[in-house]
TrEMBL record:
The lineage of its organism: Eukaryota, Metazoa, Chordata, Craniata, Vertebrata. SMART domains: FBOX (SM00256), SMI1_KNR4 (SM00860). The keyword Manganese does not apply. GO terms for cellular component: cytoplasm. PROSITE patterns: APAG, FBOX. This is FBX3 protein. Keywords: Ubl conjugation pathway. It comes from Melanocharis versteri. It comes from the Eukaryota. Pfam families: DUF525, F-box-like, SMI1_KNR4. Residues 9-55 form the F-box domain.
Amino acid sequence: PRDMEQPPALSLELLPTDPLLLILSFLDYRDLVSCCYLNRRLNQLSSHDPLWKRHCKKYWLISEEEKSRRQNQGWKAIFISTYSDLGRYIHYYATLKKAWDDLEKYLGQWCPRMISSLKESVREEDLDAVEAQIRCKLPDDYRCSFRIHNGQKLVVPGLMGSMALSNHYRSEDLLDIDTAAGGFQQRLGLKQCLPLTFCIHTGLSQYMALESVEGRNKYEIFYQCPDQMARNPSAIVMFITGTSYLEWFTSYVNQVVTGGYPIIRDQIFRYVHDKDCVATTEDITVSVSTSFLPELSSVHPPHYFFTYRIRIEMSKDALPESTCQLDSRYWKITNAKGDVEEVQGPGVVGEFPIIGPGKVYEYTSCTTFSTTSGYMEGYYTFHCIYNKDKFFNVTIPRFHMVCPAFKVSTA
């Protein structure tokens, strides 16, 4: 039989363009760049502009709308110019930019005056200058965030949340890079710690450890708590609030933008509400949110300070004759050792609220434990406004309070 003709050797030049472009569309930006150096055909194909659109959106969050403002610059050119500016942050930028964008959108709707306190981005050389000043490297996720927003002005309310009790108020600002550098610590107990936040009322800061010294992990974020029983003033316990800047900032923003924290008088209040912590008695629903206050707490001696916010609401479908007034409260308070304390008293925070259909009454109070956790439960006694002889109890759901993880000083 006649020899079958040998098919021509396959070469890239003979392969059709569309399947090759489809294959290239699955490559990451590094591999796409590598393809440019293999041969002329791949160089041409890997420069195909639509291939770079996905990378611009994935890594730099650049939209079609933003591209149209860039005077006919192609996707590849945009990717390269952005990479030359922000390339060292490629693993963090999209996550942090989305967090900032979500936060600004939310603040614009709920806390508009806070937007004006945000500062513009800083340049790479500003961050390098701070590293030279403090003689310590800043983590890339922290630097990246400051390339988007340089914290905020020292104003009230603070971006990182507020807390108010009858005679105590705090509101934490996210510090700009220069103010943070000015508060960089070299003293014993806080060696190589950079403040991230600051409250002008209490002097309270959350710090980030820039080195693993004095028992801290590098980049751990914490509130300091002096050990009042140690003779050594450098003995400082840490209430840990984050393991890295990225985790600390994005988890906070997520709580804010998902409505996890209530907005009260144009401020973000750091009360955490457990969805299960709700009890309904007839037409009245009671729900509770809680917060730990590190600035009023100590580990040695053990004194853990919590505040709680209670919301009492009558269903809007209730009948007008359901209107009632709160007379008294009963609490059963249990600490982690099982010790029980019972408290009874008139009204709540000195008030005797009247509640009717669709009405809400909210108040805040506080408690302390000698253990790192505990819980409270109880009931309110009400009387009907239109039938003074009718009394009934309304359940307060059990709510738990737990101190954040902490590290005892090595001093």
